[in-house]
Amino acid sequence: MMRRHTTLLTGCTALALALGATACGGDPVSAGGGDKELGGQTVTVAGVWSGSEQKNFQKVLDAFSEKTGAKTQFVSTGDNVSTVVGSKIEGGNAPDVVMVPQVGVLQQFAKKGWLRPLSPTAQQTITAGYAPVWKKYGSVDGTLYGLYFKAAHKSTVWYSPEALTQAGVKPPKTYDELLKAGHTVSDSGLAAFSVGGQDGWTLTDWFENVYLSQAGPEKYDALAAHKLKWTDPTVVKALTTLGKLFKDKQLVAGGQKEALNTDFPGSVEKVFGPKPEAGMVYEGDFVAGVAHDQYGKSIGKDADFFPFPAVEGGNAPVVSGGDAAVVLKDGKNAKAGMKLLEYLATPEAAAVWAKAGGFLSPNKKLDLASYGDDVTRATAESLVGAGDSVRFDMSDQAPAAFGGTKGAGEWKLLQDFLRDPSDPKGTAAKLESAAAKAYQD
């Protein structure tokens, strides 16, 4: 998915900070070394990133090479990470490190016996720098396998300051205020929301924010693990709440039919493109990247965000996603791969990409001054400040057949619900039927 200034520390101090070891006084450095102990070795890394994300991650890999002497090679897998990595393992050509974009895939890799547990050095650095919830999402059966290097903040509503100012609307604090503000924006001549319903994943994100705030984190965790059925009254209630927005033609740009023909980039265009049709678009922090890169918007001036508001007296939700670095057992240079992972766990590594832009780190030891603008700094602060109340994207925790497949499972059923939100109970029953099958398989 899409998405300052700090001077990188150098010399002895940086090494000690970055590697969690005494890098001064002649002691050996366990995690990579100023003596270029990995010189002549190559670490291969696979991940979904391409374009600017791949380019910026390469800067992090280059910093690792500079520190350790290791060469790095990045392979872009496209969206289907598990299939690509599985075929590489079978072909005897496994990468050393994989950047895994979904909790469900990380669990799948661990259960297949593909992963190495993280080294004590990496574990210590993660324990010191991350809220425990990130260790939970990187662990399977109590063993820590994954380091969440890059995160997404999926509880941000992006808006045109001009549109809201014209309507005389201030960023709302509650879901009811959100709908009320939407009607005011609509009365001023623009639709309230642009909804990218052609991409089913955007609708799962809408549902997850409403559900987390309304039902609370315990129920959210239970539903994510399918220990709670989708027919539960809390699910029906959340769908009813969401349906109020979906069926209101004043609120959704072009109505339901147009929303179903609008993909995620198109939903951003309707707010920040040359011919605005809506004042607001809900999605993650990566909206800013599209608004800036595609439409030249100045983030904080021409495009801004407010937190997804609290629903019916609940807490404001913080839903996240992210990419976890894991080390494969079958990699040709898994030992050097673990050194890379130890480096990625440090604030120094996160600062490289933070400075480049289009990045959030869950690492609370990363200086917020590393981010290049106030808006990114605010989203990062919100993410880190949420601590253990952060919840990982629910559909990313589910088996792909239910939570991550185009035209099937949750994606399709929520698209059907957007088309006709009149029967929340019936939709919940269909979601339960699809979930039961996927979790059984």
TrEMBL record:
SUPFAM superfamilies per UniProt: Periplasmic binding protein-like II (SSF53850)
Endpoints of the signal sequence: 1-23
Keywords noted in UniProt: Signal, Transport
Keyword Coiled coil: no
One Pfam family linked to the record: SBP_bac_1
Coiled coil: none
Source organism, top-level taxon: Bacteria
Family: Belongs to the bacterial solute-binding protein 1 family.
Protein's recorded name: Carbohydrate ABC transporter substrate-binding protein
